[in-house]
Amino acid sequence: MFDAVATRYDLLNRVISLGLDQRWRRHTVEALALRPGAVVLDLATGTGDLALALLRHRTDVRVIGTDTSQRMLDVARTKAARFGDRVSFTTGDAQAIDLPDQSVDAVSMAFGIRNVEDRPRALREMARVTKPGGHIGILELTEPSRGALASLARAHVHHVVPWIGAMLSGSAEYRYLQRSIAAFPKPEAFADRMTEAGIRVLAMRPLTFGSVCLFVGMPGGVVP
Description:
Blueprint: H1 2-5, H2 9-16, H3 21-31, E1 39-43, H4 49-57, E2 62-67, H5 70-79, E3 87-91, E4 104-110, H6 119-129, E5 130-141, H7 150-169, H8 176-183, H9 187-196, E6 199-207, E7 212-219
Parallel strand pairs: 1-2, 1-4, 2-3, 4-5
Antiparallel strand pairs: 5-7, 6-7
């Protein structure tokens, strides 16, 4: 499905998020607290929006973007061409990262962990490849449960998002988004999964009335 919507994916994100998705990514970049010369692994990079935000944030960082969709990566390469060898894109699976232990300074992932079949395994992989003291930032859509605007946000996810996605992508399968958000664990439960996978959770930040949550951690949780 991601191959099918690759050329319209950025437009879909802007429309469905009411233009807020880029702001959410900037929050993620800032939370990584990157040092000069850092190497960042951006998992589920898609069309490279978060990778580009990382490159713009610091002119001395290098980004490795991986994704399972080749057509999404083709779009990312075109968008990132002006950054030269500061960024590379390759096919890769978050559940089996093809990098040595403690080989990157930070790991980022935006709107991808929901789609990973074995999330604990992917989280353990993030902890494995991140250097001690490095940060892991995971940005994900969540279903608001509290607050005056929670019902409005839920209505947007359950009704407006599937309709817009199907209309712009030409694929009724875009309704998967609504189902996957509803099936994703509550933020507190997901934070517990991070800890169990070896990631010490530093922050859990709800954004935009809880429709998105930014999880920030570093290697050092308790692995059972």
